[in-house]
Amino acid sequence: MRSWNAILPLAAALLAAVPIAAETLLVVRKTDNAVDFIDPGSGLRLASVLTGNAPHEVSVAPDGKRAAVSNYGTREQPGSTLSIVDLEQPHEIRRINLAPHTRPHGVAWFAADRIAVTTEGSKRLLVVDPDNGKITGEIETAQETSHMVVVSSDGSRAYVTNIGSGTTTALDLTAGRKLADLPTGAGSEALALTPDGRELWVAARADGHIAVVATAALEVKARLPLPGIPIRIAMTPDGRAALVTCAGSSELVAFDVASRTERSRRKVDVTLAPGAAERPFARLAPGSVLPVGLLVSRDGSSAYVAATMGDRVVQLDTRTLEVLRGVDVDGEPDGLASTPVIPRAVCHGCTPLDNSR
């Protein structure tokens, strides 16, 4: 294997020849145990870093220079580690052992020295210091399948969805205690805060609706019907639109946040990858390409959708939901994130975007 120093001449030549976007897309590859660095403008894979076993989600540090990847593991071999990845010189800096906590999944790097991560195996939200590799706090949710997490902009409160219990848990990170379990619906999984922090949108995939929670009162104020296994939610930076991936119907759906009405929807038209039907997560919605991972670009103009069973990431216009381009990413692409940092080294043998599929 070539060292990064050995490929720096190639990096310089490539970066000079190819227009690089204002952000780098990070794509977690579950079955390849890696996170890829992709230039969304050209579709070039700039780098790939190995992680722990079966990673699922990724979150970028506030300064954009590092990322945390949750190594969930498999049903047979539950994971218990968190990978810290350098985004400037792509490599795994350290792998933090979270044992005895297992099945780390949702992850939010919410302060320079603090990462929140859910652990389904121990029904906890952990707070981890990435610099010393230690758990600095833990709060029990006492709920089943504590899966995804989002943290308020001031870092004082976290919200965790619990698929098995059909709830969303509100947690006080300052006091280190649970505030409430909210009845957001069966299969509560996806969640996103509006930019002003006043509303939390939660997708209950089994009940087929979006629960809108008023965060001040910690009350469900509305339920918006949405069949098709809604599984991820992302807000646009201006707070006007909420985008939702529906794993069952293979769609991206846009809601107007102010009116709480559906604005538009678009089929994620991707071909199933060879052997996709045999993958464990294919059972969630047989025959679907499972659009799960969802990310809105930093400028709000684009949305990226990871078609997990299609081994492809699709970029769409957030206003029209028109497909802009797609890029092949093997190994079940799932969690997505972005950074304004452009890696100082790129992979050997990168290939340009293929729009033929």
CATH homologous superfamily placement of the domain at 228-357: YVTN repeat-like/Quinoprotein amine dehydrogenase
Gross CATH architecture of the domain at 228-357 = 7 Propeller
| Rg calc | 19 Å
The ordered string of helix (H) and strand (E) elements is HEEEEEEEEEEEEEEEEEEEEEEEEEEEE
SS content category: mainly beta
User: Which term fits the overall shape?
Assistant: globular
Strand order in the sheet with the most strands: 3-2-1-28
Largest sheet: 4 strands, antiparallel
Count of alpha/pi helices: 1
Proportion of residues in β-strands = over 45%
Report, as a whole number of angstroms, the end-to-end distance. 31 Å
The parts where pLDDT drops under 50 for at least 5 residues are 1-20, 353-357
Helix % is: under 10%
- Give average pLDDT, whole number: 92
Total number of beta strands: 28
The CATH topology assignment of the domain at 228-357 is Methylamine Dehydrogenase, Chain H
**What is the CATH domain class of the domain at 228-357?**
Mainly Beta
Description:
By secondary structure, the chain is mostly beta strands. The protein has a domain at about 230-355: Methylamine Dehydrogenase, Chain H, CATH 2.130.10.10. The chain is about 5% helix and about 50% strand. The protein has 1 helix and 28 strands. The chain has a 4-stranded antiparallel β-sheet, with no helix packed on it. Strand 24 and strand 25 (about 300-305) form a beta hairpin. The longest helix is centred in the N-terminal third of the chain and has 10 residues, at about 10-15. The radius of gyration is 19 Å and the shape is globular.
